[in-house]
Design a protein that fits this description.
By secondary structure, this protein is mostly helical. It is built from nine helices and no strands.
Length: 276
């Protein structure tokens, strides 16, 4: 029942944010103050979403972290990512002009919670705290970078409309490209830091990687780390911007998806083995 409450809250927040994004963006662009009713509704939605994210996180602490005898099943992984995306969505909601981005991120979070309900309580082999730490660091990195991929995709679509000299729906619900680039840069740095910690912890805590058929996971993770490291350095040092950077970002995220979820599908579905 609690999972359905979480799902309902995330869906409600998604609908409210996406339907109100255009009006809120118009208010932001005109530098007008939002109405008292709009401010009150935002406070209520922010408070409701914040409480639900805290409760969702608390349940994950009990089920995933404190339960020492339990591994990370696929439903656990999806739930952790859903929670992290919801937290990022809440943060985006509080940034001027990012209601639509927040709505899309929360929609993905809601879909993941729904998938957890369909999958149910799958079982997984017990994991040590070291391996759990490595897995959780990886999930945090993927969540930051996954939210960034939503932003990168929206930015590419918005850029295409601007190049075609036409004003589309995206232009009315998204902030200026320079604002999305700045937000994307923050997500990239956060994701890179956690990815670096995850890869480092993997080499420290995971023994005999080749015997566990994780060679491809290691190679792809390092490749993703190099790509996002280059993006961080390129933006900070050389001022990289524009479409090329966005395509580079999405390519890096695709590599990470193959590294973790491709590995997990191969291990658990094809080889019938479990690993965090």
């Amino acid at each position: 029942m609690f999972a359905f409450t979480i799902l309902g809250t995330y869906v409600l927040a998604t609908l409210v944010l996406l339907t109100s994004a255009s009006a809120a963006q118009a208010t932001t662009m005109s530098h007008n103050e939002p109405s008292g009713k709009a401010l009150q509704a935002d406070r209520i939605l922010t408070g409701l979403l914040g409480v639900m994210i805290v409760l969702h996180g608390a349940s994950l602490v009990g089920d995933v972290i404190l339960e020492n005898t339990q591994g990370l099943g696929f439903a656990d992984v999806l739930s952790v990512i859903a929670w992290l995306l919801a937290a990022i969505g809440l943060y985006a909601m509080m940034q001027p002009g990012f209601r639509a981005v927040s709505g899309v991120v929360l929609a993905i979070s809601a879909l993941l919670v729904g998938a957890c309900l369909i999958i149910g309580g799958d079982t997984a082999a017990p994991l040590s705290w070291q391996i759990k730490l490595h897995a959780i660091l990886s999930l945090v990195a993927y969540s930051f970078l996954g939210a960034g991929s939503v932003l990168a995709t929206a930015s590419l679509m918005q850029d295409s409309q601007l190049r075609a000299a036409r004003v589309g729906r995206l232009s009315t619900i998204l902030p200026p490209l320079i604002a999305t680039e700045q937000f994307l840069a923050r997500l990239t740095i956060a994701g890179f830091v956690f990815l670096l910690l995850a890869v480092t912890s993997g080499f420290i805590f995971v023994d005999n990687m080749f015997a566990q058929h994780l060679t491809h996971k290691s190679v792809l993770s390092i490749a993703g780390l190099v790509i996002f490291g280059a993006l961080v350095v390129g933006r900070q040092v050389a001022g990289w911007r524009g479409r090329r950077m966005l395509f580079f970002y999405l390519a890096g995220f695709g590599v990470l998806l193959l590294a973790y979820f491709g590995s997990k599908v191969i291990l658990e579905v094809v080889l019938n083995r479990h690993w965090g």
